[in-house]
Amino acid sequence: MKLPRNLDADALIKAHSRIGYVVVRQTGSHIRLHCSEPAHAITVPNHRPIRIGTLAAILQDVEIAHQMERATLIAILFD
Questions:
Q1: What is the DSSP letter of 60?
Q2: Could you report the per-residue pLDDT of 33-56, keeping only the tens digit for each?
Q3: Burial class (CB in 10 A: 0-12, 13-18, 19+), 53
């Protein structure tokens, strides 16, 4: 599956809340999200839009932490 284009930080944070991530803090233009099961944290830049390489890196980190494939993760987050 292709990664969504023109995705902003608010939409990405809302999508990650579907799998248990919550906003913990914000420092400048970076927002820290934390998930308790499995214990994992990610940082999302508060940019409009988020660059495709940055989005791919964030999703890859979440894939590894949750032990799921990219297609499955994209289907959960963006459908």
A1: H
A2: 999 989 999 999 999 999 999 999
A3: exposed
User: Which tokens sit at 55?
Assistant: 């989005």
What is the pTM assigned to this prediction? 0.90
Residue 54's CB is within 10 A of a number of other CB atoms, namely 14
Q: Domain containing 21: what range?
A: 9-78
Query: Residue ranges of the alpha helices (H) in 1-79?
Result: 9-17, 52-66, 70-78
Q: How many domains does the chain have?
A: 1
Q: Is the separation of the CB atoms in 29 and 46 below 8 Å?
A: yes
Please indicate, yes or no, if residue 3 is contained in any of the structural domains: no
Q: Let me know: does 79 contact 20? Beta carbons within 8 Å.
A: no
